[in-house]
Design a protein that fits this description.
Blueprint lengths: L36 E6 L3 E7 L4 E3 L2 E3 L2 E7 H27 L2
Antiparallel strand pairs: 1-2, 2-5, 3-4
Length: about 100
C-alpha cells in the first residue's frame, strides 16, 4: 500500500456538533397561532403540550378545534416552565408597581 492509498480517518468531537454562534442561525417560524386553551400530558420520556383555539368552527354539524402539539423532553419542559414562571412574575411585579404609582 502506498502513502496515497492509505485510508484517511476523519475525527470530530460529537459534543461540538451542535455548538454554533447565534449568527449561524435563522429562525423560520412555520406558523403563528393564538391559543386560549391548553392540555398537557407526560410519558416516561416526553412532556406534551396541546394548544387549542376555542371555540373552533362548526361545519356540517362537526366542531373542529384548531390545535398544535409540542413534544419535548423533561429537561426542556422544565426549562420552559421556569421561563414562563419568571416572565409571569415580572409581569405581576410591573402591574403592582403600576398600581402603586396611580
Amino acid at each position: 500500500m502506498t502513502k496515497k492509498e492509505r485510508k484517511t480517518t476523519l475525527e470530530f468531537s460529537s459534543e461540538n456538533i451542535y455548538k454554533a454562534e447565534s449568527k449561524d442561525f435563522h429562525i423560520e417560524y412555520n406558523s403563528n397561532n393564538y391559543s386560549n386553551a391548553t392540555s398537557t400530558m407526560k410519558t416516561n420520556d416526553e412532556y406534551i403540550i396541546d394548544f387549542f383555539t376555542l371555540p373552533g368552527t362548526i361545519a356540517d354539524g362537526v366542531r373542529t378545534i384548531p390545535a398544535n402539539r409540542i413534544m419535548m423532553n423533561h429537561k426542556n419542559a422544565k426549562k420552559l416552565a421556569e421561563q414562563i414562571l419568571n416572565s409571569l412574575k415580572d409581569i405581576s411585579e410591573q402591574e403592582e408597581e403600576s398600581e402603586d404609582s396611580e
